[in-house]
Amino acid sequence: MASIDDLLTAMPDLVNCACFDVYPKSVNWVDNTWVFMIQEEADMIVASGERAAEFEGVFVDCGGVSCIKAPLSHINAKALRRLFSFTAPIPVLTKDRSFGVGDRLGIATPGHIQAFESYDAYPIFAQQSIRELNMTHRTYHDVLDVVSFAVFREGYKRGFGADGDHLKKPEEIKYALDLGYSMITLDCSEHIDNRVVEMSDQEVCQKAHVDPEMKRRYLGQSITIEGETISFSEVELSRNVLVYGKAIDFASAMYDRFFKDGQYQANFEISIDETETPTTPQQHYFVASELMNRGVKIDTLAPRFCGEFQKGVDYIGDIDQFTKELKIHAAISRHFGYKLSIHSGSDKFSVFALIGHYTRGRFHVKTAGTNWLEAMRAVAMIDPDLYREIHHFALESFAEAKKFYHVTTHIDRIPEVDELRSEDLPKLFEDNDARQLIHITYGFILNAKNPDGSYRFKDRMYRLWRNHQAVYHDLLKQHIGKHLELLYSGFKKSN
Question: Three-class SS of residue 447?
């Protein structure tokens, strides 16, 4: 394969043309056609050759060479994915290590690419939930398109995934799959009955309908997995049926509808983590066993771990208890042949080495809001006055934002930003309370408007991030790199 320098040498009339500021890693040749990306006020694609007309844009002449200069539109993203397969997502959950990096802003992928350069984990660059789409007024088209453009611009060709994250409705699943998303995370939370924990044993046995075949599968059985024993009493089995029965029905129905006969070539993840109570190893085994009994093939499953995986801060809870249960959860996942998935994985630095160790280096971890926090750290570094204005607005919006998240933020412990020196503002992002404040108010910050209808902060922030791309991307490289380094330290030590 020709090197970038060889490609550049072969097309001097275009690359050396004064009208183009070329991203050198984006230069590609396919079917007698040069395609590359250029930097202007907004990035553009330039194509010249037999298939240039597949892009929708305007004809320009540069150094006597006819080209099409095309905006980064959905139509042109589809053209790019047709011409260059590396810009389209692939299923990656079957790889040993995968790592999701949700990008709420659509500008983080170049930094994420830098973070993954030293690791063999497969990234999921496009990863958004419907809630995040609603908060940011984006679409799944946009989320995937900006990733395709970014991997093309940066010359990233190793493969990436796209996750329709925390989807709850069949129309949402179909929407993502039809666009080419390579992974669906099925959120079963609305079908998990948390009220059962308050029922007496007598109530449970009265309300649960456990068929004889299920009783034969579990009652009186001593199930040993990697030295750990799991067993069920009649009351425990009945509780599992009441808590998870409808969730299992839902997951099975969605699998049959979209995945069973290979309708879509995509990975399938089950999420049972968005609940009020932790998933015990026994419950994990029950859910997995019932799914397998129904012929449901999953690639990852996300339990609700003990302790708290709050947004944007380290693990909160008893690490010894977490370690004990993680060991069993990981063993159960291996027993059934899928990877353990860790949701709300942002910044859980105290347990990453444990996760790497007990999963034996086979894991899927999801991060999201921490990438937004690094973008806001960049704002604090570059434009302190803008950050102060945003911070005050976040404080005003916090009570409303808190309705959407479970956090234990203490607003009164956050330093007063007007009393901090400008050079100290970035240190707020080492403070858990300040981190959670900015983390959960992102939708309010991005959508705030002035009386004339213009955005109060959004346009100024995007101009700052555009003009200081290298700052943000370097922050992401360091921050996401720290996640990966700790995860890898666990299983490297055990091998």
Answer: helix
Q: What are the structural domains, with CATH classification, of the chain?
A: 4-82 (no CATH), 87-370+479-494 (3.20.20.70), 371-476 (no CATH)
Q: What percent helix, strand, coil does the chain show, rounded to 5?
A: 50, 15, 30
- Which band of pLDDT confidence, cut at 50, 70 and 90, is reported for residue 468? very high
For the record, the structure tokens of 124 come out as: 């999921």
Residue 180 has pLDDT above 50, yes or no: yes
Task: Tell me the β-bridge partners of 189.
Answer: none
- Closest C-alpha among 464, 489, 465, 487 to residue 476: 465
What are the residues whose beta carbons fall under 8 Å from the beta carbon of 235, sequence distance 6 or more?
A: 201, 204, 205
Residue 207: phi and psi, rounded to 5, are: -90, -25
Q: What is the DSSP string of 448-492?
A: -B-TTSSBSSHHHHHHHHHHTHHHHHHHHHHHHHHHHHHHHHHHH
CA angle 168–373–155, rounded 5-degree value: 80
Range 61-85 average pLDDT: 95
**Residue 316: is its pLDDT beyond 70?**
yes
Is residue 112 within 8 A of residue 123, CB to CB? The reply is: yes
Give the separation between CA 319 and CA 192, rounded to whole angstroms.
Answer: 26
DSSP state letters, 73-137? -HHHHHHHHHH-GGGS----TTSSEEEEE--SSS--HHHHHHHHTT--PEEEEEEEEHHHHHHHT
Instruction: Give the mean pLDDT of 101-108.
Output: 96
Average pLDDT over residues 299-308: 97
Predicted pLDDT at 4 = 47
User: Is residue 469 within 8 Å of 375, Cβ to Cβ?
Assistant: no
Chain-centre distance of CA 181, in angstroms?
13
Confidence at 406, pLDDT banded by 50, 70, 90: confident
Q: What is the pLDDT of residues 151-164, one digit of tens each?
A: 999 999 999 999 99
- Of 233, 242, 232, 231, the closest CA to residue 203 belongs to 242
Find, among 186, 319, 322, 207, the residue nearest to 254 by Cα.
186
Q: Which active-site residues does the annotation give?
A: 165, 269
Cα dihedral angle (434, 436, 439, 442), rounded to 10 degrees?
-80
- Helix/strand/coil for 233: coil
